[in-house]
Automatic annotation (TrEMBL):
Name recorded for this polypeptide: ABC transporter ATP-binding protein
Gene3D superfamilies listed in its UniProt record: P-loop containing nucleotide triphosphate hydrolases (3.40.50.300)
Start and end residues of each ABC transporter domain: 4-236
Protein's UniProt keywords contain Nucleotide-binding: yes
Originating organism: Pelagibius litoralis
Amino acid sequence: MTMLSIAGVHSFYGNIEALRGVDLDVQQGEIVTLIGANGAGKSTLLMTVFGNPRAAVGSVRFEGQNITTMLAHDIVRLGIAQSPEGRRIFPRMTVMENLQMGATVAPLEHFDDDLDRVFTLFPILKARQQQRGGTLSGGEQQMLAIARALMSRPRLLLLDEPSLGLAPLIVKQIFAVLKDINKQEGMTIFLVEQNAFHALKLADRGYVMVNGRITLSGGGEELLAMPEVRAAYLEGGH
């Protein structure tokens, strides 16, 4: 079943066209990644799913329902959660308070079970639960951002640059968790990422974006093997 369908989407910032006719879909249970250079329009596409900016042309559908003009909080209630670029946790709130904020759209009776789940995925958060978010390391903040998104009990998880600015060991840990929640729980994941190697190794399928357009698509390993992808995104092909 197609969970997310983006068809012919154009988005603008003022007079600047950021997305130029994007077609992309994510099937239930998949990990799909979107790679591309900085400024290609990857984050704009994720933001367009949530209506900021709104798609000027084209449509965004979730499980067949047109969400193109819906408000962001209504989209979250449908079962989509986003861990945004730059983490954007609540720095003055504790870890626990951040997780409680994530759970505001989920049924209260599931809170304890969901909390146990994210503490199992990210044990360091359990140890840090009374610590203010702003005092965590970059890697811990990224784990908190993902955990906060999971607390809303989404069926589709959108992740924007989860590896940005993090040490390789932390990146490996975070991608291992993403693989685990996909394989063990069937979580559908749409991942925007500059780290093409890690993203394509993880993904079932991938898309390449250049200047607001999708230029390539295929299986994760298939794209990883393409000379043009290796040359552009994998350190000159090495």
